[in-house]
Amino acid sequence: MTQHRSGPEQARPLANVETTQAEAGGASTDGSAPLVEVEHLKVFFPIKSGLFFDREVARVHAVNDVTLSIAEGETMGLVGESGCGKTTISRAIMRLVDSTEGAIRFRGQDVTHAGRRRMEPLRREMQMVFQDPFASLNPRKRVGQIIGLPLRLHGSERKEIEPQVRELLARVGLHKEHVNRFPHEFSGGQRQRIGVARALALEPRLIVLDEPVSALDVSVQAQIINLLDDLQDDFKLTYLFVAHDLSVVRHVSDRIAVMYLGKLMEVSPAEELYTKPIHPYTSALLSAIPIPDPEENRRRERMVVSGEPPNPINPPSGCVFHTRCPRATDVCRTLEPPLARYPNGHLAACHHPMNVSPEEVKATEKDRTSPLSAGDELPAASGANGSGLGDGH
Amino acid sequence: MSEPPAPAAGGPLLTVEDLKVSFATEEGTVQAVDGVSFELSAGEVLAVVGESGSGKSVTAMTLLGLTRFPNAHFEGAAHYKGSELVGASDDLLRRVRGAEIAMIFQDPMTSLNPVQKIGSQIVEQIQEHEGSPQAEARERTIELLERVGIPRARERVDNYPFEFSGGMRQRVMIAMALSCNPSILIADEPTTALDVTIQAQILERIRELRDETNAAVILVTHDLGVVADIADRIAVMYAGRIVEQGTLDDVFYDPQHPYTWGLLGSITRVDRPRPERLPAIAGLPPSLADRPEGCHFRPRCPHEFSECTKVPALESRLEGRPDHKDRCWLSASEKRVKREVQPGEIGLTSKEGAAA
Amino acid sequence: MATDPLADQAALQGREAWEQEAERERAHGIGPWRLALRRLRRNKVALAFGFLFVLLVACCVAAPLWADRVAHTGPNENHLSDTIRVGGETKNVVGLDGIPIGPTWRGEFFLGADSNGRDIMVRLLYGGRNSLLVGISAALITTILSIVLGLIAGYSHGASDAAVSSLLDILWSFPVVILGVALGVALALDGVDIGPFSVSGDSLLIPIFVIAIAYVPYMARPLRGQVLSLREREFVEAARAQGAGPLRIMFTEVLPSLTSTILVFSTLLIANAVLLEAALSFLGAGIRPPNPSWGTMIDDGVDRISTAPHLAIVPGAMLVLTVLSLNVLGDGVRDALDPRANVRLEH
Question: Global pTM?
Answer without folding.
Answer: 0.79
